[in-house]
Amino acid sequence: MEIYVDADACPVKDQVVRVAERHELVVHMVSNSFMRLAECPLVRRVVVSEGFDAADDWIAERAGAGDIVITADIPLADRCLKAGARVMGPTGKPFTEANIGTALAVRDLMGHLRDTGEVRGNNPSFTARDRSQFSQALEVAVQAIKRGR
């Protein structure tokens, strides 16, 4: 079991490392440029080329059954689910076979509404409660995989 993080815009990198340390899991922090990360021997920094979706491709090519992927990128989540990985967003909400189709449809709809000026892309700020919920969800996912569920 390894954890793959789409790290460029991930607000919960520190929380991922804390859970990984507790369970002695390797974490791949994948980004398009160098970023300062917590010093931990379990963290593997992966800097990919600046090509479009290069980080997504790197993660999707490696993540599989028994792994966990952390991303807000819905198409990447879909690819990783198809490879058998567990996937969750930075809020801790899991992407599943049951909800990924809806997530992709909403993503496309929101993109269209932004393009037409109907909505603006203001996301709510990330709170301490959001971080706590994420940590708890990741802990539950790790334990479930360890138990074989």
Structural overview:
This protein has 149 residues and is α/β, with parallel strands linked by helices. The protein has a single domain (2-146), classed as Rossmann fold, CATH 3.40.50. It contains five helices and six strands; from the N terminus they run βαββαβαββαα. The chain has helices spanning 13-23, 54-62, 74-82, 100-115, 128-146; strands at residues 2-6, 26-31, 43-47, 68-70, 86-88, 94-95. The protein has a six-stranded mixed beta sheet, with helices on both faces. It is globular and about 45 Å long. The chain starts with a strand and ends with a helix. 29% of the residues are buried. The mean pLDDT is 90.
The neighbouring-strand order within the major sheet is 3-2-1-4-5-6
In N-to-C order, the SSE pattern is: EHEEHEHEEHH
- Would you identify the regions where 5 or more consecutive residues have pLDDT less than 50? none
- The dominant shape is globular
> What would the average pLDDT be, to the nearest integer?
90
Give the C-alpha Rg.
15 Å
Number of helices: 5
Specify the CATH class. Alpha Beta
The CATH topology is Rossmann fold
Percent helix range: 40-55%
Strand content: 15-25%
How many individual domains? 1
Distance between the termini: 13 Å
Annotated CATH architecture: 3-Layer(aba) Sandwich
The secondary structure category is: alpha/beta
Report the strand count: 6
Q: How would a textbook summarize the main sheet?
A: 6 strands, mixed
Notable characteristics:
6 strands, six-stranded mixed sheet, alpha/beta, Rossmann fold, 149 residues
